Amino acid sequence: FTMAESADARLIASVDRRKDVFLGQLPEDFLRVQPTTQQLQEVSDHEAAYNLQMQQNAAAQGFTPSNVIGTISITVLQAKLAKNYGMTRMDPYARLRVGHTVYETQTDSNGAKTPRWHRTFQCYIPRGVDSVFIEVFDECAFTPDELIAWATVPIPANVLRGGETHEDWYPLSGKEGENKEGMMNLIFSYLPLSGAPMATRVIPGQVPLVAMYSPVYNINPCYSPMPVTVAPVPYGQVVQPDPPRRPPQLTDDLLQELKSMFPNIEESVIKSVFEVSRGDKTRTINCLLELGT
Questions:
Q1: For residue 244, what pLDDT is reported?
Q2: Distance from C-alpha of 47 to C-alpha of 43, rounded to nearest angstrom
Q3: Does 213 score more than 90 pLDDT?
Q4: What CDD domains does the record tag this protein with (predicted)?
Q5: Helix, strand or coil for residue 92?
Q6: What residues contact 125, with CB distance under 8 A and at least 6 apart?
Q7: Separation of CA 238 from chain center
Q8: Which residues pair with 233 in a beta bridge?
Q9: What are phi and psi of 183, to 5 degrees?
Q10: pLDDT tens, position by position, 61-94
Q11: Is the pLDDT of residue 179 over 90?
């Protein structure tokens, strides 16, 4: 072989090797992670929660719903659980459902069997509601939050009828059996709408987490639920409602920026996450990063 023939042979061999490597056009979804059904359900729940929350806030600022009989204050003080599940100390938090409204306490890190929250919630009592459904979860970092205990707590009659303040310990059910998972310490107080000497007003920016009750327990919302806080106003004084806040607007430039950062997530999902994050760009990006992992 001459040097020219040897060079041609090497060139042909190189071209043949390239043909073996480049197999053609890659599919559009190559190396792209598609959101799971659970992640899409999470975004849907967040969107529903946001829409209902806005409706509740607007209603509270303008008028009291016709099916409401009064306002109840529920203070979640502490719990004494029967068992610590897992190898490490549990990080418990409590979730309350009053009618169709759901509230959550903060997490007591390393609270284990004796978590303390001291969290007070103010909420409307719809007509016909005479109990509160309570759940206790162990917050987990890499697995779904574990449901530890639950209970349906009847609102004491002396609270609803007599307007008294009532504190008591209530039994919890769970894996150990009915009413054998521990106790929770609660305080109830009630203010009826008719004949009340004080009016109530919702402080802007502090609204309850109003959500569709979902069986998906590993949802980590991208927003921080806060209870309604009421401020007393002397009877007879007219309370001027705050002007309604316009929902955040997602500009075309920001949408294109988010789509370029997360090309594997659909545009409708990006818009939903932006609305749930209340127009906060940083929070939106963090939520989308969670969806993409």
A1: 55
A2: 6
A3: no
A4: C2_Tollip
A5: strand
A6: 68, 69, 70, 71, 72, 98, 99, 155, 160, 190
A7: 34
A8: 199
A9: -135, 155
A10: 555 667 888 889 999 999 999 999 888 899 999 9
A11: yes
Write out the two tokens for 219: 């949802």
Label residue 190 exposed, middle or buried (CB < 10 Å: 0-12, 13-18, 19+). buried
Q: In the numeric block, which tokens belong to residue 182? A: 């521990």
Residue with tokens 């002007």: 243
Q: Check: CB of residue 74 under 8 Å from CB of residue 104.
A: no
Residue 106 reports pLDDT greater than 90: yes
Per residue in 122-176, pLDDT tens? 888 888 999 999 999 999 888 889 999 999 999 999 998 888 899 999 999 999 9
User: Domains along the chain?
Assistant: 68-192 (2.60.40.150), 252-291 (1.10.8.10)
Q: What's the per-residue H, E or C state across 150-219?
A: EEEEECCHHHHCCCCCEEEEEEEEECCEEEEEEEEEEEEEEEECCCCCEECCECCCCCCCCCCCCCCCCC
pLDDT at 35 over 70: no
Task: Kindly state the tokens that stand for 169.
Answer: 């310990």
Helix (H, G, I), strand (E, B) or coil at 193: coil
3-state secondary structure of 16: helix
Cβ–Cβ < 8 Å for 92, 52:
no
**Cα(287)–Cα(292) distance, integer angstroms:** 9
Alpha carbon of 65 to those of 56, 130, 201, 228, 243: distances in Å?
9, 17, 14, 15, 19
Residue for token digits 């060139």?
Answer: 11
Provide the sign of the torsion angle of the four alpha carbons 118, 152, 202, 137, taken in this order. Answer: positive
The two three-digit tokens of residue 171, written as one number: 């039994």
Three-state secondary-structure class, residue 79? strand
